[in-house]
TrEMBL record:
Full protein name: Tryptophan 7-halogenase
Chain positions recorded as L-tryptophan binding sites: E345
Organism this protein belongs to: Ideonella aquatica
Lineage top rank: taxon: Bacteria
Gene3D superfamilies referenced in this protein's UniProt entry, alphabetically: FAD/NAD(P)-binding domain
Any one Gene Ontology molecular-function term assigned to this protein's record: monooxygenase activity
Amino acid sequence: MNTPLKAFHRVVIAGGGTAGWMMAALMSKLLGKQLDIRLVESEEIGTVGVGEATIPALHTFHNLLGLNEAEFMAATNATFKLGIQFEGWKAIGEDYFHSFGSTGNDHWSAGFQHFWLKGRALGLARPYTDYNPETVAAHANRFAHVPNQALNYAYHLDAGRYARFLRGLSEGYGVQRIEGKIARVLQHETDTATARAGDIAALQMMDGSRIEGDLFIDCTGFRSLLLGETLGVGYEDWSDWLPCDRAVAVQTASVREAWPYTRSIAHPFGWQWRIPLQHRVGNGLVYSSKELSDADAPEVLKRHVEGELLIQPRLIRFVPGQRHQVWQRNCVAVGLAGGFVEPLESTSIHLIQRHAIRLMQLFPAGGIQQADVDEFNLQSRRDLEHIRDFIVLHYHVNARTDSALWTHVREMTLPPTLRHRIELFRETGRVFRPSDELFAENSWIQVMMGQGLMPARYHPVADLMGPDELQRFLEDIRVRVQRIVAGLPAHQAYVEQLCAPF
Ligand code: FAD
């Protein structure tokens, strides 16, 4: 059993990308008065420079920080995001939309999909997306805040500006920023009153200075300088399920109004993203190095973007997977230092937020307790494995025949958890969401049906409605969706008006 250590109050955050500054902002806002928080970052090393699409859960983080939405959007050139358009994922030429929010009305015993499936069998139902306000609004290029949160949304944001915005907040709450390169990570050689031999003691900077701390947050990106390199925590490689291991990214000038959704376009070698901001578009290719060479990737990307290039294409190598533990000794890895699934479905910023909130909940004020560490690692692993399954689903259920990559992912052995979900949906149309999972039923349904997985049957409760009643039920929902969207302004005009005072 661990003996409690003296109060921890010196926190050192290594790295100032999105992870470092999100962590600093939350910790300083909530615990700034009790803690001495320092953040080290190196302009020369820079950040990964991508990560610009988010999911609606970011509202929770912003609410905790007490942010003004319009001010945040103006500062980060953000736009609204209602979901993701998947183009060519099921098969070449076939698209679908994964929206935030819900589709239709559920019955207590069965989800809307069962009623829709019955309507489809009888030839009464329109496309599933017609019953979802976010999808209809996205395709009409419209957006506004509407009462009762009838449109669920997230943001596209400029990652560099977001880090600077959070830095301003954090410094306001007392975080001290230290510019410079970490040369070495020093460990305690013997037990002390507040640490054990092997715990991290300090960051040794290139200029010879030392930054000592009690708790270290590793936000050094893929380098994982503290958790991976220094403490030797190994990495679980998921590339058998997720074959993409490279990305090349570039920013282009906008040539059209920003649309309120991310585009994810499948290619024989992987896929491409387009993320529209107020002032520019973020673009990238995510690919398997077995299908496309690093030398060819930038040229391929250039052929698939619109508008003038604002920076030169930048290559990023990664291994999809996670560290065996994200909290070890007195070091917690947040962001890319702890793992990375793949950018599809934009979940990394969300995971940073989850880690940041979880660390606040389990903050080791009286010293590190192994039970807290275990709980943190358990919850973090569950989060990431759930997201992994959801992302693998997009690859696996496909009918593409144009490359070895798509054949491999269709034929590969799945994680048992995902195999079960697919079988349950295929046979019965049912999806269940364990309470702490990120993606809700409607996300799974949209992606499974979008990728071409249609259930063999629907729940018998749908038979309680005869054809006329079912038609009226479906039509009422469709008309309500149309009414919501008809009242919305153009997305770009709405963003400009909202941000104008800032
Ligand atoms: P980084 O941005 O790499 O920051 C690392 C920091 O550590 C930097 O400040 C660096 O200077 C510092 N550092 C490193 N070494 C040293 C040293 N020796 N001395 C001093 N400082 C040091 N997430 C999403 O949510 N949505 C997306 O759409 C999305 N798209 C992505 C696309 C790609 C291709 C990739 C690879 C990732 C994407 N992500 C996305 C993930 C997202 O980019 C990251 O989660 C996010 O940017 C956080 O990165 P980070 O702060 O962990 O690392």
